[in-house]
Every structure is written in C-alpha cells, then in structure tokens.
Amino acid sequence: MSADAIFQPLQLGPLTVKHRVLRSSLGGRWDNYDGSGTSTRIDWDSKFARGGVAAIISSNAPVHQRGMLVANYASIDTDERIPFWREVVRRVHEHDCRYIMQLVHAGRERILPGLQASPTGLSATDSPEPLNGFQAERMNVEQIREVIAQFVAAARRAREAGVDGVELAGAQGMLFTQFLSSAINDRKDEYGGSVENRARFAVETVRAIRAEVGPDFCLGFKISIRDHMNELLPWMRSGNTLEESVQICKWLEEAGLDYLHVSVGGGFPHPRNPAGEYPTANVVATYDTLISSGSRTFRNYLMFRTWPLNKGFRWWWERPGRKHGIEGINLPEARAVKQAVGIPVLVTGGFQTASVIAGAIERGDCDAVTIARPLIANPELVNMFAQGLDRAPRPCTYCNKCLFTFLEHPLGCYDERRYESREQMIREVLSVYAGAPLPSEVVGATQL
C-alpha cells in the first residue's frame, strides 16, 4: 500500500498540519522541580520536529501544582511560564512543525506529589486510585469551577506563548476521566450519575476555553473511549460503554472542539496503553520510588518482585496485546467515533508501519495517528516513511522499558537489543542533555 495517504495536509479547525502523523504526548522529567522549563525540554521536542512529525503534542503541562502528575514537568500555571513556552514553539517551528500543548490536571492519578501540592489529589470521588492507592478528595462544585478557571487561564497563556493549539488530557485516568468514567465517578450531584452529568465537567471546560480563546485557535480533547478497568484489575467494573463515550464525543464537538484524540484505558499505565510487554525487572528496579506515595504501593512492590506472583501479573497485563495485537489496537474505537462526529479524529496505539497507518486513513478509521514509543525508538521515523521505508530497520519492540524506567532515569529507549552495545544505548539516552542552559528571562522560575 502506498504511503501517499499519510503525506496529505489535515485541517484541525483553524490549524493546518502538513501530514497525518503527529507525536503523541511524551513526558520525561526534563524540567525543574518547580515547573519551570529547561533547555533539555526544548532539545527533546526539537529532535522529533527534526524527525519529520507534522505536529508535536507536548508532554502534559499542569494547569496547577495540585494537578501535577509527577514533578519535573514544565507547567503552564502562571504567566511567568509564557516566555519559556514561547521559546519552545519558536524552536519547533524552525522545522516546519506545529506545536499543540496538552493541558492536564491529574486529579488523584498523581504519581509523585510535589512539595507544593496537597497530600490528596482532587477527584470526582474520594475513593483512592485503585492500583496504587493514591488518595483522593471529592471535589465540591466550587472546586470544580476553580479548576475550570485554571484550564481557561492555561489556554489563554498557551495562546499568548504562540502555541498552535491546546489539547485537554481527558484519557488514561486524568481528572476528566475520573468524572467521565462510570467505573470511577460515584457522585450523586449534577456532576455524577447519568452520562450527561458525568460529561458536564468536560463540556463546561471546553465551552469556557472556547469562549476565552475564540474560534480561531485549535482546541482538542484526548479521551479514553473504553475504560477497560477490569483489564487492569479483574474485580473492577469495566467503565463506560462505547455508546456512552461516542455520545460524550458528540457533546464535546458541540461545545466547540476542533478534533478528538482517541485512546483507551481508565488509568495509567494500562494494559492497552501502552500495550506490549510488562518489563518486570525494570518495574522492580524503579517502583520502590513510589512506595510512600500510595496505600497499596508496598503490596505492589512485593508482588512485582516475588515469583510466581510477578509472572502471573505479567501474564495478565499482556493479555490485551496478545489477543488484539499492538499496532492499531485502538482503531475500532476510533472508527466508531469518526462515524459519529464531523471533526477530525486522531488515534494513538503503537503505530510504526507506514502501510498500517495509510490503510487506517484510507479505510476511514481515523484522520491521523499519534505516535509515542516508536518515536522514542526512532525519532526519524516519519523521515524514513518519506524516504520510502515501510518500517524502521530497528523498530520499537514494545518492551515498555521506556515507560517503567522514567521515574528514576531519563526517558529513552532501554531495549539493549536495538543497539550495538549498552554504551551506545546510554549515549543515545543522554544525548538530549547537550543543549546550552536557557537565560533566566526564558526559564520562568517560581518566585518564592
């Protein structure tokens, strides 16, 4: 199959991207503890822009310190952050690449709360996060309105920084997911119960941002179409049905979205996101960092390092990938959404083969794909597609060592099988630190 379908421009509302492959949100603890940015973050994003992606969806940018997933992520919570993001955009634009900032509030899904955050995460519920036991505080209506205002202010700052659009992080267990999901949201007020009530927080946020930024600024929403919570822990309810999530997508479109970004999984990490191997040794080596963060983390640590419990958990974790495959695992959900809405649909899910991507676009499963792990393995992947390759010579193996290593080490590919030597792997991982420090007027450090 020809890759021509990939290299066609795509209109995301007022934003035109040059083709149909975007970089998905890729984190990495590249920044300062207080949420100010660094040259490493800029070099990290710039290398994917050089690699040929049409647009970069940023690592999740917290709209408030209490909503930070983990420390050392550049935030967008104050006006002092604007100069840093303006510099990021300038550097990415040098490579004819657009930049979309992903705005996030983690809610109870916080991995390592920072010093500036409360010990409990805000949420739709006061039940702790199920896998690790991160504590939660049920938000009242006043707090909901405050968080909506934080998203609106963050979108305004993003626009002032010159980014090309913003995407709301509503997938993989972030705060919007906690309201949307029938497996998580146990409220009895106007923000809980029926699917319309569970969608209210997200819909109100989209409307408020659209009113603030106007019609000529790109606004997207990343959503988990199916929660599959019972694939994470078998005793949990599955969560939203496909029909419920498709209806939510229609309401979000009516509220003012320019595109939808389809994913799955009501928490993060999740067996479907990222689908693939469960790297037990890497988990044991780094999971101890979390032991004091949640009520169930010590239990998990013992399970992850104890045979045969760890073998059983790995078997359970890898079931979805074995059953459904990894590349394109979310295409059925994307197809259902695309058939129901009139705005472009992006989808993530292990993509790294040009013919697979082109086929999905030509069949009408989606309008574009977003890529994360395969770009960590091969930052030049899109340039390879343009040169006629169907796949990188050394493709991503979906070993997931990148994900389960980032708590203690730089984000990168840690599959030594893909390198000539361990030394070569380490050089590649550390190469992003080569940039010069940023001047103080660009960093936007927190003022105490």
Summarize, please.
Helices cover 36% and strands 12% of the residues. It is built from 17 helices and 13 strands.
Task: Give your account of this protein's structure.
With 448 residues, the protein is of the alpha/beta class. The protein has two domains: 10-273 and 325-443, Alpha-Beta Barrel (TIM Barrel), CATH 3.20.20.70; 278-317, no CATH class. 36% of the residues lie in helices and 12% in strands. The protein is built from 17 helices and 13 strands. It has helices spanning 39-50, 82-93, 141-160, 175-180, 195-213, 229-232, 242-255, 280-287, 297-305, 309-317, 319-324, 331-338, 354-363, 373-377, 381-386, 422-430, 440-443; strands at residues 10-12, 15-17, 21-23, 55-57, 61-62, 98-104, 121-123, 136-138, 165-170, 218-224, 259-263, 345-348, 368-371. Strands 3-4-6-9-10-11-12-13 form an eight-stranded parallel β-barrel, surrounded by six helices. A two-stranded antiparallel sheet has the order 1-2. A two-stranded parallel ribbon has the order 7-8. α1 (39-50) packs parallel to α2, α3 packs parallel to α5 and α8 (280-287) runs antiparallel to α9 (297-305). The model has no long low-confidence stretch (mean pLDDT 92).
Question: Keywords for this structure?
Answer:
TIM Barrel; alpha/beta; two-stranded antiparallel sheet; 448 residues; eight-stranded parallel beta barrel
